[in-house]
Write a structure and sequence with these properties.
With 237 residues, the protein is an alpha+beta fold. The protein has eight helices and seven strands; from the N terminus they run H-H-H-E-E-H-H-H-H-E-E-E-E-E-H.
């Protein structure tokens, strides 16, 4: 790796982490000596890159600094294309269109030499023949999550029971054949996961749920980790 490429990759490593990154961590990823890392950090700071920290503790990249847009490597472009192809195949209708629009936008401003890595990427996502059909508009649920709004839901469980409840949606989990909404259920007073293909109807309410979504998601993850099998689906206490 040339030194200029290594310096760009070092900035990328710092952008990837929210907490201080040690010199040892960067040295292992870049496959260079710790002495080289320290020398490169000093060079970046001399070039006015806002890096804070010190040897033995770690380094962080200051807020407001960014690289020029679309500074992609071939591996990064293939990763972007693979992810967008997956979303186009597995996402709900609005996300699928958004993925296709994103490819077009990136491709329109990429340098000519990089376009083959995007449009001709050899990483394929096969069609999903077992894909189940959603009974509701998942885009509205995603909007409710972004805005922190409650949802009035009519749901049919695996055994055919139908219930009405109000949920606080906090995340969407995309699986190969179906999608799940992770939410706090007011009826059960617990976290539950709801398959979108079993939702009979839903309405986004004007009322916002009282807790912060980030805090709820953290609580759900902690509870899931304590359960041997992770978060359960269609578990109605």
């Amino acid at each position: 790796m040339r030194r200029a490429e290594r310096l760009l990759q070092m900035i990328q490593i710092l952008r990837r982490h929210r907490r201080p990154v040690t010199g040892d961590t960067m040295a292992r990823e870049l496959e260079v000596s710790l002495r080289t890392v320290y020398r490169d950090i000093a060079a970046l700071i001399a070039d006015r890159v806002p890096i804070r920290g010190e040897a033995g503790i770690g380094y962080v990249l200051g807020a407001g600094f960014d690289l020029p847009p679309l500074m992609f490597t071939p591996d990064e472009l293939e990763a972007v294309m693979l992810g967008l192809r997956w979303v186009a195949r597995r996402g709900d209708a609005d996300l699928s269109r958004a993925a296709q629009d994103t490819v077009a936008k990136i491709g329109s401003v990429l340098p000519e030499r990089l376009r083959p890595f995007l449009f001709d990427a050899a990483l394929l996502v096969p069609p999903q023949f077992r894909m189940v059909e959603d009974m509701v508009n998942v885009a509205q649920l995603r909007c409710a999550i972004r805005e922190g709004r409650k949802v009035d839901l009519a749901y049919r469980s695996e055994d055919g029971r139908q219930t009405k409840r109000v949920i606080w949606p906090i995340a969407v989990a995309y699986f190969d054949a179906q999608r799940l909404i992770v939410a706090w259920c007011e009826l059960r007073q617990a976290f539950r996961s709801f398959r979108t293909d079993r939702m009979l109807s839903m309405a986004v309410l004007d009322e916002k749920y009282p807790a912060r979504r980030k805090a709820l998601l953290k609580q759900w993850r902690e509870e899931s980790e304590r359960e041997a099998g992770g978060p359960q689906v269609d578990v109605f206490a």
